[in-house]
């Protein structure tokens, strides 16, 4: 049978004494395109342009509660491809996911909503962007991977630094 120290026998598979599910859980329930806009303002002339377009990529992450255990995570991606003669195409995508979280501390919920969930959703949003640019008549735009955890940590450090700098200033009028 199982030896002492065997991985399978070391797992704590015992349920909670009252049968309640009290373990921490987080995951993506579903994903969907909430809004997609694709513009090709200078077609068909833009197909004749020979200069390489400059790609401007902007993204933003938002989250809003649906109920106590479910949040909608929104990954907004705006892409503008500009050439010397004008905009070749513009893509605005609002890609969302429903994230379920239970029995997590607030800081872990925040990290899941703003770092881990966007990391899990990004490959699907990236495919939508590639398909949209291809469907606009241009080569598919494949976005480079984004380090959402690194960006999240950077944002936390900036906020901590701003809070520390604001802490030295008077809070109000006396």
Fraction in beta strands: 25-35%
**Strand ordering within the main sheet:** 1-4-3-2
Can you give the helix content as a percent range? 25-40%
Rg result: 23 Å
Shape: elongated
Major pleated sheet: 4 strands, antiparallel
Could you say which structural class the secondary elements and strand pairing correspond to? alpha+beta
Can you tell me the residue ranges where pLDDT is under 50 for at least 5 consecutive residues? none
Gap between N and C termini, in Å?
75 Å
Q: What is the tally of beta strands?
A: 4
- What's the rounded overall pLDDT mean? 87
Q: What order do the helices and strands follow?
A: HEEEEHH
Notes on the structure:
By secondary structure, this protein is of the alpha+beta class. 31% of the residues lie in helices and 33% in strands. It is built from three helices and four strands, in the order αββββαα. It has a four-stranded antiparallel β-sheet, with helices on one face. A hairpin with a 2-residue loop joins β3 and β4. α2 packs across α3. It is elongated and about 65 Å long. It starts with 6 loop residues before the first helix and ends in a 7-residue tail after the last helix.
Question: Topology, please?
Answer:
Blueprint: H1 7-10, E1 25-39, E2 54-65, E3 70-83, E4 86-102, H2 106-135, H3 148-167
Antiparallel strand pairs: 1-4, 2-3, 3-4
Helix pairs in contact: 2-3
Short overview:
The protein is of the alpha+beta class and 174 residues long.
Q: Key terms for this structure?
A:
174 residues; alpha+beta; 4-stranded antiparallel β-sheet; 4 strands; elongated
